[in-house]
Amino acid sequence: MFLKSRKLGILGVGNMGQAIIKALIDSGTFAASRIHFSNRSSGKIEKVKRLYDINAHTTNEELVDNSDILIIAVKPQDLEEAVEPCRSSFRKDQIIISLAAGVEFKLLRRLIPEGHLTRVMLNTPVFVRKGVVGFLSENDLYEEPLRELLSPLGAVIKLEDGDPFEAFTVASSSGTGFIFELMSYWQDWIEEHGISTEEARQIVVQTFLGTAAMAEASQETFEELQNKVTSKKGMTAAGLESMRSLEIEGLMRMSFSKAAQRYRELGRS
């Protein structure tokens, strides 16, 4: 397979970078001996080297030189500082993957003159290998190796540039935060009715897990599944009627739009 003979580089080993490293090692996709990394914090370098026994480099230039596939896992505002010193080190045969939200190919190509560019967006459930990963490449030459590389993180979806990629980023990445917000409301209400914090949390987590599992196991629409648990004039119907009268959908759409606006601002900055 394509990946078996390649060396992988991770530029930036914050939480997301480490989640990727762990998933790739645990799944057997990459042996630790073929993973290289760099980070601007020397303390983080020592910690990651100790945790995963992978190859550390003190400069980004060294990392680029030792990578066939390079994942740039830094924040958008740190991207230029991270890759500018490496401009002359990038090679035509490299696959370069950027995780920087909002940073489009035009800017990436200005910073990275050589290599096959790919943009990837993922959400935090990749920490438990249950994430959703969207990718967008300049060309389809390496589509299958990219799927092979990303699949240990969760479901992999190929996207089109522009609005689809932006919508995916907001719905999956920001969406995880939105769901945690809803789960917090759920738990608070349950606790207010005499159930312990631990049990309230368990109820919420299991309700969300079970609901997601039902949806995953079915080909029916969300509306059809909802109808199965909603009796006419029953308690669920009464609650849904209240939610709809409060225009919860409109409020959620506003939240998505606000997140999308910030996504575009990050790219411009």
Question: Which tags fit this structure?
Answer:
elongated; 51% helix; alpha/beta; ProC C-terminal domain-like fold; Rossmann fold; 2 domains; 269 residues
Outline the secondary-structure elements:
Elements (H helix, E strand, L loop, with lengths): L7 E4 L3 H12 L8 E4 L3 H11 L2 E3 L2 H6 L3 E4 L6 H5 L11 E4 L6 H7 L4 E7 L8 E7 L5 H8 L3 E5 L4 H29 L5 H21 L4 H7 L6 H11 L2 H21 L1
Parallel strand pairs: 1-2, 1-4, 2-3, 4-5, 5-6, 7-8
Antiparallel strand pairs: 6-7
Helix pairs in contact: 7-8, 7-11
Numbering strands along the chain, what is their spatial order in the largest sheet?
A: 3-2-1-4-5-6-7-8
> What low-confidence regions span 5 or more consecutive residues with pLDDT below 50?
none
Q: Give the averaged pLDDT, no decimals.
A: 93
CATH architecture of the largest domain: 3-Layer(aba) Sandwich
Helix-strand makeup class: alpha/beta
What is the top-level CATH class of the largest domain? Alpha Beta
- What's the CATH superfamily of the largest domain, by name? NAD(P)-binding Rossmann-like Domain
DSSP summary: helix tally = 11
C-alpha Rg, in Å? 21 Å
The outline comes out as: elongated
